[in-house]
Write a structure and sequence with these properties.
By secondary structure, this protein is α+β, with helices and mostly antiparallel strands. It has three domains: about 5-115, Hypothetical 12.0 Kda Protein In Nam8-gar1 Intergenic Region, Chain: A (2-Layer Sandwich), CATH 3.30.1250; about 120-190, Arc Repressor Mutant, subunit A, CATH 1.10.10.900; about 195-260, Alpha-Beta Plaits. Helices cover about 45% and strands about 20% of the residues. It contains ten helices and eleven strands. The chain has a four-stranded antiparallel sheet with strand order 9-10-8-11. Strands 2-1-5 form a three-stranded antiparallel sheet. Strands 3-4 form a two-stranded antiparallel ribbon. The model is unreliable at about 1-5 (pLDDT under 50).
Length: about 260
Amino acid sequence: MIDRARIDLGGFIVGRIENSGRVFEMLMDPEKAWKAKKLIREEINNRLKEGKDKSRFTIEELLSYPKIDLELIFETFTVFEDLRRGKKATDGDMEAVFNTTEGKTVAAHILLEGEIHWTKAQREEEGLKKLKQIITIISKNAVNPQNKKPHPYQRIEKAIEEAKVRIDLMRSAEEQVDDIVKSIRAIIPIRIEQVEMAIKIPTAFTAKGYNIVAQYVQIKKEEWQSDGSWVAVVSLPAGLQIELVDKLNKLTHGRVQTKILKT
C-alpha cells in the first residue's frame, strides 16, 4: 500500500482528525457516516430548542447512543496515521491525544469532531434539501417591506441563486435564515417581520408549553405567577404566530391566553 495511485478505497471514505500535531485516519461507509452526522446534528438542535443546559454531544454519549452503530459506520477500528500509505497510528500517539488505544473510541472522536470527505452526490442531495427548507422558512416569515406582502417561493429561490449564497450542510436551515436574508437584500427588498406577543400558560401545562414556546420565539420577559402559571412577553416571526398559537391551544385544550402587543 505504498503507491498512492494504486490505492482503491472500495467505495469507502476517509475520516480524519488532527490533534496536537498528530493525524489519525479511519475508513468509513459514506452513506452511514452521513446519516450519523445528521442524527447528531438533529439531537444537538433539539437540545438547544428545549433549552437544555448541556446541548453538547459527548464521546461517551456517542459510544452508547442507540441510534448510531459505529461498527456499521467504520469498516474496521484500525487507526492509521496515513491510511492511503497503510501506516498505522502508534499506541503512544493515540494514548497521548485520546487517553486510550481503543480504536472504537478514536472512531467516535472522528465521527463527532473530525473531518469527513463526503461524496459529491451526498453533498448535492443534502444541499438541495436544505435549500428548499430555507426558502420555505423565508417565504413564510419574510415580506417585501414596500408592500408588506410575502415574496413568492420562486422569487426567493432566484435571489439566492443570483446572490451566489453558499448553503452550509452541517448547519440547520433555521440557523442560516438570517444570514441568507441579509445576503439577498441586495437582490430583492426583504425583511423578516416580527410580532411581540404576551402569553399566559396555565399551571398544568407550563413544562411542555415552555418547551413549545422556546422553539419559536425570543423570550423578552417572563414571570412565574403565584398560582404556578407562566406569563411571558415574546418576539417571533409574524409567519409563525398562527402555528405557535395552534400548538399551545392544542396542548392546553384552548386555555392558553395570547395577545398581540406590537407588530
